[in-house]
Write a sequence for this structure.
């Protein structure tokens, strides 16, 4: 998009944001850009406009004018609502300057400009070509600022299994890493299974090593989802969704729970605490748990495993990660009923000194509800860091996890 704007209007821009209409009924959206350098002459019949010109403007998509009006009004009012750092004017220049400084300090010469890549709700990505290959920059959202420091620490312990970190700014949640290539896309079931069977034990080994440093990882800002803290956090989570519940039997939606659902969750608070305690008693030590470990966040090449995107990580029970990984196995290999068991065994075998094989199934069942709640807590923190349209897009995430937790708690572990 930035390149096309440069081609059409000779404008150097970076994309700050995508603004959508405040209701799902209106699909209109606009992109917000920041210009850089000297502005070139405008094409014939073109001119710059501000908010005072809106009543004179007609757009091909009327809804876009409404979105533009709302965005300009918010900016005129100093954007009182919460914003993500990279939507601020000047942020890209500061990030680019930091990238250049860190490259110089690392003795690496840039061979081109900093290029903006696609942006997501929780992060912003750029890259720059150097004499030795691409270098990638990632800025994590404030709720995930622990990711650079956590990645750097894990990379020191397991350089063969994590991206090579060139520099971090822990306060701003910035990280620069060396290129590790594309993530291979597997097509056959055999290839997929081989990847999962390679990743599972490597992940467990990382977690076994990190278990002794769980307090240090927590100090880096990783959320504390240890089993001793989860029951209280679950109770607060239930009370939070209760405040938004619908009192009418059929009045709930994807975004809210019904009173009946909340009441059932309340009755299962003691059962949730019991499962957390029972899981703790099995003896697997708590460590770092990667809650977004799926085929898009690991790469396997010639048997070598690389695990990345540790933003959604917590200090908690290691089996929270296995629960997430097995979900991905079931999604990608729905017809191979033996695959989840094979992957689980490959993972659990690394914990054989802590838990005998005849207790593995019990451990997985006990970990299911706490793992769901851990992800719900992350989603709550993430969505509460947003406002307006951004929050609305993800409004059903916590509710969906709470419904899943309820279903699991209603089943015998």
């Amino acid at each position: 998009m930035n390149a096309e704007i440069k081609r059409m209007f000779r404008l150097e821009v970076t994309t700050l944001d995508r603004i959508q209409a405040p209701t799902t009924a209106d699909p209109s959206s606009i992109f917000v850009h920041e210009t850089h350098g000297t502005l070139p002459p405008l094409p014939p019949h073109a001119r710059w406009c501000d908010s005072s010109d809106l009543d004179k403007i007609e757009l091909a998509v009327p809804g876009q004018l409404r979105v533009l009006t709302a965005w300009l009004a918010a900016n005129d009012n100093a954007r009182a609502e919460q914003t993500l750092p990279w939507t601020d004017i000047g942020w890209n220049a500061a990030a680019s300057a930091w990238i250049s400084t860190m490259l110089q300090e690392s003795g690496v010469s840039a061979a081109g400009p900093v290029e903006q890549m696609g942006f997501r709700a929780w992060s912003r990505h750029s890259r720059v070509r150097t004499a030795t290959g691409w270098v990638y920059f990632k800025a994590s959202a404030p709720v995930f600022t622990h990711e650079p420091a956590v990645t750097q620490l894990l990379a020191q312990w397991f350089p063969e299994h994590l991206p090579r970190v060139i520099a971090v700014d822990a306060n701003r949640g910035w990280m620069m890493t060396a290129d590790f290539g594309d993530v291979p896309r597997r097509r056959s079931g055999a290839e997929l299974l081989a990847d999962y069977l390679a990743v599972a034990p490597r992940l467990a080994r990382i977690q076994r090593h990190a278990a002794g440093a769980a307090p240090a990882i927590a100090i880096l800002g990783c959320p504390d989802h240890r089993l001793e803290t989860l029951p209280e956090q679950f109770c607060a989570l239930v009370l939070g969704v209760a405040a938004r519940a619908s009192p009418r039997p059929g009045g709930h939606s994807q975004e809210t729970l019904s009173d009946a659902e909340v009441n059932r969750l309340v009755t299962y608070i003691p059962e949730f605490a019991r499962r957390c305690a029972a899981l703790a008693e099995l003896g697997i030590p708590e460590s770092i748990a990667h809650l977004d470990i799926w085929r898009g966040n690991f790469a396997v090449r010639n048997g070598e495993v690389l695990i990345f995107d540790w933003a959604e990580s917590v200090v908690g029970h290691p089996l929270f990660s296995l629960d997430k990984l097995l979900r991905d196995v079931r999604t990608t290999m729905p017809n191979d009923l033996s695959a989840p068991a094979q992957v689980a065994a490959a993972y659990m075998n690394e914990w054989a000194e802590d838990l005998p094989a005849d207790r593995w199934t019990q451990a997985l069942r006990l970990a299911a509800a706490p793992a769901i709640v851990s992800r719900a807590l992350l989603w709550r923190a993430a969505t509460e860091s947003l406002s307006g349209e951004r929050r609305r897009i993800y409004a059903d995430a916590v509710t969906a996890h709470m419904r899943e937790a309820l279903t699991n708690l209603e089943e015998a572990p």
